[in-house]
Design a protein that fits this description.
192 residues, mainly beta, four-stranded antiparallel beta sheet, globular
Length: 192
């Protein structure tokens, strides 16, 4: 709660600002600017529950950059892909989340891919690939793990539905539950 991390997709940069709620003149002041790979398009960042690691999804190439995180500073530890090296279509990475137990990371790709990738998170913060599966729809704009951790719901902007996957909390793997929610152009799912 002490820093604001801002991804600039167009500039391929991450801006970090200390958050000073009690300072009326300077609530945010620039701490650092971190450049990412040119043309990668940093989109969303997710933090591990323990606050030690951060994972950045890049929209244009679908890669994930892992960082050590401490006091508003990001130090790169890994870059890993989410599509097959032979994939030639449009990727359009969309969303990224870490499971509540901090053991798994999930990332969706839209475009021509329409997939969700699963990675286990080692104690060092390094990601290890588990699987990539179809999201069973087009335009997986957003997804959310339910509070029980047993289900993962994917909102498909272009097929107008939410696909519900069963989530194995031991392996992180996803299987189709067969359940769908029909809704017009869903782009955000939040459990309260």
């Amino acid at each position: 709660g002490k820093y604001l991390i801002c991804n600039d997709l167009g500039e391929d940069r991450i801006y970090t600002y200390p958050y000073n709620a009690n300072n009326k003149n300077t609530v945010l002041s620039l701490k650092s600017v971190l450049s990412t790979n040119a043309g990668s398009g940093p989109r969303h960042i997710a933090f591990s529950p323990n606050g030690k690691f951060a994972y950045l999804a890049h929209e244009f190439n679908g890669s994930i950059t892992g960082f050590y995180y401490t006091k508003g500073s990001l130090k790169k530890i890994q870059e890993i892909g989410t599509t097959d090296k032979s994939f030639t279509g449009k990727i359009d990475a969309a969303d990224i989340h870490v499971s509540a137990d901090g053991k798994f990371l999930y990332e969706t790709n839209r475009g021509d891919a329409n997939t969700i990738s699963v990675f286990s998170i080692l104690p060092t913060g390094i990601l290890r690939f588990v699987e990539t599966v179809s999201t069973l729809g087009r335009g997986p704009r957003n997804f959310s793990i339910d509070p029980s951790g047993k289900f993962l719901l994917v909102a498909h902007q272009y097929t107008n539905d939410v696909v519900i996957f069963k989530r194995n909390s031991v392996t992180g793997k996803l299987t189709d539950s067969g359940k769908r929610i029909e809704v017009g152009a869903p782009v955000c799912l939040i459990f309260q």
